[in-house]
Amino acid sequence: MYLTFDTKELNEFKEFADTKVYPLRLKTRQEKYRFKVLSSMFSFNDSQWFFTNRKGEKLAFFPSDQLKGKTDFVLLEHYKSHFGRDRLFSLIKKNSYGISKEYVGEVFFYLYIFFRL
Fold first, then answer.
1. How far is 56 from 89, CA to CA, in rounded Å?
2. Counting beta carbons within 10 angstroms of the beta carbon of residue 42, is it exposed (0 to 12), middle (13 to 18) or buried (19 or more)?
3. Domain ranges of the chain
4. What does the alpha-carbon distance between residue 65 and residue 11 come to, in Å, rounded to a whole number?
5. How many CA atoms lie within 13 A of 84 on its CB side?
6. Residues 91, 81: contact at Cβ < 8 Å?
7. What pLDDT, in 10s, does the model give residues 22-48?
8. Between the CA atoms of 52, 53, 59 and 63, what dihedral angle is there, to the nearest 10 degrees?
9. What is the value of pTM for the model shown?
10. Is 69 exposed, middle or buried (0-12, 13-18, 19+ CB in 10 A)?
11. What does the pLDDT look like over 51-63, one tens digit per residue?
């Protein structure tokens, strides 16, 4: 199971990193602590979001409302390596966060239909 956030929530993380002021919607100490921990895991650089995992590696992250960016990332990795679905997924898993094997399979299905027509 992956963490999913939309662009609005990620922008709140970016604003918190700059100003250290919590959003008004957070009421309890536990909500503020969870928000602080989550915001420390995300960074924004060159119009791309990154998620820092427990090992300290920065992985590409795509907000839930940016489906096109996620699809383009899968297609780019496929065109660079020409791997099959499972091998491509293991490569993507090392470079990004939040892209499931089922999603890679869907992209391959649409590629198959597009090039067969």
1. 21
2. buried
3. 7-61, 67-116
4. 13
5. 1
6. yes
7. 999 999 999 999 999 999 999 998 889
8. -70
9. 0.78
10. middle
11. 998 899 999 999 8
- Which residue has tokens 């996620």? 70
If DSSP states are collapsed to H, E and C, what string results for 23-89? Answer: CCCCCCHHHHHHHHHHHHHEEEECCEEEEECCCCCEEEECCCCCHHHHHHHHHHHHHHHCCCHHHHH
Tell me the C-alpha distance between 38 and 46, whole Å: 20
- Residue 116: how many other CB atoms lie within 10 Å: 6
pLDDT of residue 117: 43
Output the furthest CA–CA distance in the chain (Å, rounded). 56
